[in-house]
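Known limitations

Structure tokens in this collection are predictions and should be treated as such. Users comparing against experimental data should check residue numbering before alignment. To illustrate the layout, the record for Cardiolipin synthase is reproduced below. The input appears on top and the generated tokens appear beneath it.
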Amino acid sequence: MFKFRSILSVLFTLYTISIGVIIFIENKNPQKTITWLLVLFISPVIGFILYLFLGQNIRKRKMFKKEDNIRSKSLKDIAELQLSAVKEARIFSEVEHSLKKKMISLILNNSKSPVTINNRSKILTNGYAKFNEVKKDLRNAKHHIHIEYFIIKNDNIGNEIKDILIQKAKEGLEVKFIYDSVGSWRLGKAYINALKNVGVEVVGYLPVFLPGLSRELNYRNHRKIIVIDGKIGFTGGINIGDEYLGKDKKMGFWRDTHMKIEGEAVYELQNIFINDWYFCTKESLDDLKYFPKLEYYGEQLIQIASSGPDSEWESIMQSYFSLITYATERVWITTPYLIPDESMNVALRTAALSGIDVRIIIPDIADHIVAFWGSRSYVEDLLKAGVKVYCYQNGFVHAKTLLVDDIATSVGTANLDNRSFHINFEVNAFVYDEDIAKRLERDFETDFEYCEEMNYEEYKNRGVIQRIKESIGKLLSPIL
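Generated tokens:
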């Protein structure tokens, strides 16, 4: 027994050392590398367990390699043609469209997503507006329904959605359903089987069979996508659960933002779903029936940017960074987690120091305690640079929105943190439209009324206990 323990101890020590070497040579950013090495040094056992669950990055590109043959060839061709046209200044070359041109070029390059023009979109403020619209459109579906969510709960609204999907499947529609296996951990077999029994095709994204399968636990599908008949799409910050309707007593009112899109931009949401479906099932859905001919919806310019471990570029982070640096008047952001990497931190502070009106709304209550205190650790430097930080007082704010000047907006699933920008699978809609900008501006103005603005002089004199909490949160945030 003694020999066995000795051998086990030696093997554990060697494995821990090897993890340290791997972390060092993986060429992550220095902050993450130092954090992981420090955790392993302070507590090899805890560091070992955390790294198994959250840290491995080896071969992720191979693991998440995109299958180009399942991406719609027409969408790729359109993106290439548009990129050439933008470079040759044949479109969007007017002075007032310079920001559009730069952003369109960026997303064409880093996300291969074409800019779409024939669109009509609608901002859905909070859960009731989102679910009322979703339920109506699901009931009116004629051909197919594709759904992909990080969190789906077996509660009242979750069962309402389930019952609609069951009814549409019984009517003969194709219904495909992707849920994240960690985000929807407690969904339950009864819920899933009720869907499967009527012909709904249901798959879990990266199922976690054993805790040791850490890559599967680390890289999560944080997207929220619904595509109906290839013509109507939904995306944004609201998952499927009663708390998003403000029914959680602890969190209270849930302030969030979603978006409904009708038109060509839905093609790219469809394309993202098709790629994720292929990753889960190896079934190709490359069929024109999923990309129907569309009627005229309007003239809103929309690009859909997706990012994740399978992406060559961190496209959503780059898009945020570029919009912040391109701004000439204002940058207004809402995010539940404010844990920017160094580049984003510099961009925000530089914009504020340049005289740009930079405002950020964050929660005043915590749903994830480490993220809460990690967010607070960045506030002092932002306030010092002139960034206005607002704490939302009327419940919990979970929206992921960005408003730049009077023309560019973003609504999606990505938080302003390391996990969304560098680890999770995310999707954001970037809209270049003054009406949508004004609509989001009204939401921001309303939210400011429910916020308390943080004061730099007061905040820099906060107590030692809070500083310690912030330091711990900041230390752990790069790896959580």
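For this record: The first helix runs from residue 2 to 25. The chain has 19 helices and 19 strands. Please report discrepancies through the issue tracker.
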